[in-house]
Amino acid sequence: MRVFPNKFPAVREDCEETSVEVFYEMTAGRGRHEVLVDTPDHNETIDEFSEERIEKVLQVLQDRLNNFRTRKHTQYVQIFKNCGPSAGMSVRHSHWQITGLPVVPRRAALMAEKMQGDNCLFCQMLTYEKEQGKRIAGETERFLAFTPYAGRFPYELWLAPKAHQRDFGDMNTEERKD
Q1: Residue 29 class from Cβ within 10 Å (0-12 exposed, 13-18 middle, 19+ buried)?
Q2: Which of 25, 54, 143, 176 has the fewest Cβ atoms nearer than 10 Å?
């Protein structure tokens, strides 16, 4: 596996521009954008990975997430994997992208707000999906894989912890193995 800065980053660490008008405030796209290449084989896809390789990929992603959080201007970290051109994949070789952004996207902030306390909307959704059983793709001791109701992308799949947990960075070794 290799991690390196994205050649065409969505955000850059050397951006400094900020301007304030009476009504608007603009900040530069300051941040970090990395690529994790998860296999040396150009034609290998994630469904061909061993459980051990996937566990290692998750460990590297978790390490990068926690590293990004130590950066001064990072307020939000997003990790994603595009598979195929319809998902926006421009490079065929299997890879992930990690972005550290200076702001929290509104949708992410709203989701985080709904995950607070005993009345966590996400936990309620998992309970409902388990009861319905229509969209379940797989289940382990600690996780539920399902297609979201009215997903935004073709073949969208959510992998969610069964226990209330807001943060991928807090995942322990047993959870990564599962």
Answers
A1: middle
A2: 25
CA–CA separation, 174 and 178 (whole Å) = 6
Q: How many angstroms separate the CA atoms of 152 and 25, rounded?
A: 30
Share of the chain above pLDDT 70, in %: 93
Name 159's bridge partners: 145
Report d(CA 68, CA 62) in Å as an integer. Answer: 10
Whole-angstrom distance, CA of residue 60 vs CA of residue 54: 10
**Residues 98 and 64 sit within 8 Å (Cβ to Cβ):** yes
Structure token digits, residue 174: 């047993």
Residues 60-91 pLDDT 10s: 999 999 999 999 889 999 999 877 665 556 67
Q: Are 65 and 169 in contact (CB under 8 A)?
A: yes
Mean pLDDT of the chain: 87
